[in-house]
Amino acid sequence: MSAWTAKKAQARLAALADTEKATHALRFFKTGPGEYGEGDQFLGISIPQLRSVAKEAHGMSLPEIAVLIRSPWHEERMLALFVLTHAFSIGNDTERAEVFDFYVAHLPWVSNWDLVDASAHLIVGPWLEGRSRALLTNWAHSAVLWERRVAVVATLHFIRKGDFADILALAELLQDDPHDLMHKAVGWMLREVGKRDLACMESFLKKHAATMPRTMLRYAIEKLPEAARQDYLAARRLIRSR
Description:
Blueprint: H1 6-16, H2 19-28, H3 47-57, H4 62-69, H5 74-90, H6 93-105, H7 113-117, H8 120-128, H9 134-140, H10 145-154, H11 156-159, H12 165-173, H13 180-196, H14 198-208, H15 214-220, H16 226-241
């Protein structure tokens, strides 16, 4: 068990805070009124700095992690997730179950795209391997943007193992999602499918490219040759102009 407490971690992060970086982060993460990150607060600490602190804090207890993950400060929540994902990666079955349950219980604080992207495929994906994945569909139907994104990003674990069924089902389900951040997430995962099985991705795109959101399509085809990208975009424009 680590000697690190939430209070010690908070003191370390406070010492690393950078006002100028924090001001930039407020804009980058869209924290203004009505924006997706409304109300989020930043200390102005880089990801490499957070990872360095997380290495020292590995082994922190779940009650101490809970203090950090419930923090109004974005970087404290990210630090909590870095420590949590490491605990999951080295834990036995009982410990991994505890981490998974903790993560799900604290999803309201996994409340920005980078927090989701740093954790969902490292905790949710591995835990659901060999288990029912109905939870992904439930989250995909959620009114909460971040729960929908967790569902999609969690499938990266399966995609890396050559299992594409879940992301293809979610991609079809979420084509009408109203949020650009979901279009980006789905497109990203489709691109990951294409890296491993181009025919599989193109089979999906042949069916849906003309009608899926433009951002989703552009993210999916980002690594294709220019001529192929233009063909997909032209097909989409043709259908949309009718």
